[in-house]
Sequence to fold (220 residues):
Amino acid sequence: MKLLLTSGGITNASIGDALVDLLGKPIADSTALCIPTAQWGHPRCGPISARGFVTGLPPWGGMTSMEWKSLGLLELTALPTIGTERWVPWVREADVLLVDGGDATYLCHWMRESGLADLLPSLTDTTWVGVSAGSMVMTPRIGEFFVEWPSAPDDRTLGIVDFAIFPHLGVFPTNTLDAAERWAAGIGGAAYVIDDQTAIRVVDGMVDVVSEGTWRLLGS
Fold:
């Protein structure tokens, strides 16, 4: 897959241009599915924030309020009960998956439980746009700092990429550079610390940063 791993979504023109470049066509010609599943695993998320992501209403506007050719909802917790013959074609036909934040371990669990994780290697023409946990789920680990789901067995996630992500730099009082450096020391390996104006683009194993804000690469 082509990955656009963000902290806050499509928050500026540079990230928006990167998305269009990954799609290879305009937003108006592209089909999207939005995935709110990670929200249900985080204690500070709920029906209002989930609706906000799906509808794109302020202050959650961004990806789902873009002028897509079509936009649908894919709830991963429902997929095991409806059969792959229904939902796999939905995913294969989408140009982009818009994956919201919440708890990355919860999202990881349902990606595996639903079968979406097993499908990812075959989605070579699909773009994955993650927000916060929707980005972190692609990393090997998120660190205990970010685990909010009480049933999480540990902090491990999918490991599609070989680096970790510390999102929302400067957005919340706890998400400081000092906190990120302590977190990175426990994670090991390369770790990107990004604010909400920054995204990490991954194509064919090549990684680059798209930013109009602040970011750091630690432990490289």
Notes: The CA atoms of residues 38 and 102 lie 5 Å apart. The beta strands are 2-6, 31-35, 70-73, 96-99, 127-131, 164-166, 191-194, 198-203, 206-211, 215-218. The chain has a mean pLDDT of 96.
